[in-house]
Amino acid sequence: MTPAAPPAEQHHSLLTPDGVALAYRLTRRGTPRPAVVLLHGMASNMTRWSEFVANTRLGEDWDVLRLDLRGHAESISHGRIGMDVWCADLAAILDAEAIPDAILVGHCMGANLALHFADRHPARVRTLVLIEPMYREALTGTLARSARFRPLISLAVPALRLMARLGLYRRKLPPIDLAKLDQEAREHIAAEKAGFPSQRYASPLEDLRHFPLVAYVQDMLAVTGPLPPPESIRAPVLVLLSQGSDFASPTLTARLLESLPAGRIEQLDAEHWIPTEQPDVMRTLIEQWCDQHRRQDSDQQI
């Protein structure tokens, strides 16, 4: 018998009580199944996961959900955002889709959000996959400097929100397709025989061409904020770290994560953008991790 084709991804929107439309896409066949939720990073959007969704086999056995966090892309908002808001939004989406718990997969700021959600809603998290989590103690370069100036940066947020309420913000922002950007980066590396074009991926000016300033500043505060202590996370955790140190020290990050009660750490040959630089290896590791925990669930039900 020929296996059934994976179900098509469907676009959804959830209106929050304060009037923000949260955009997300869901791959589901029939009734709800165990779910994998994909969380993007700072100044990013759900297209960070377009290539993964197009190539993964997870949709055969899992519901796969990816979303634009509030303040990003199709979930546009010029109001307050941050870990507490995103955790509440994620819980609301899971409720709306009848998902009692999920495997959370997060990149960069999305990994930090996964940790916060697991700390606040432990019963709703099966396992975590953290791709480049950003511990404040391990930050380097621009993010380390931003962390030192968090109190000053936070002072700008009320003024930016007030300006937005008064209508003083850009009405049209060109969208960015991160899957397309990733492909262009790989073509550049192949053609020029050069290293990874970090300047395109790590430029605030480039980010702000596509992203509201009020959201960007709040993203910066979120990614440089404190994280729950590793020992408070009870869910099994797969951590994927790059060998690069432009944003965070991989050695110190791994050391901080050693106290995870059920953790496994893999280090990949990448600068920081593992979904861009090592998409196939990343996908395989995530699929194997999900397979492993699905088998464990089946064994426990016997």
TrEMBL record:
Keyword Hydrolase: yes
Domain AB hydrolase-1: 34-146
Superkingdom to which the source organism belongs: Bacteria
Keyword check for Aminoacyl-tRNA synthetase: no
Pfam families linked: Abhydrolase_1
Annotated organism of origin: Azoarcus taiwanensis
PANTHER family (UniProt xref): HYDROLASE, PUTATIVE (AFU_ORTHOLOGUE AFUA_2G14860)-RELATED, MONOACYLGLYCEROL LIPASE
Keywords, sorted A to Z: Hydrolase
A GO CC term attached to the entry: membrane
InterPro entries found in the cross-reference section: AB_hydrolase_1 (IPR000073), AB_hydrolase_fold (IPR029058), AB_hydrolase_sf (IPR050266)
GO molecular function: hydrolase activity
Name the UniProt record assigns to this protein: Alpha/beta fold hydrolase
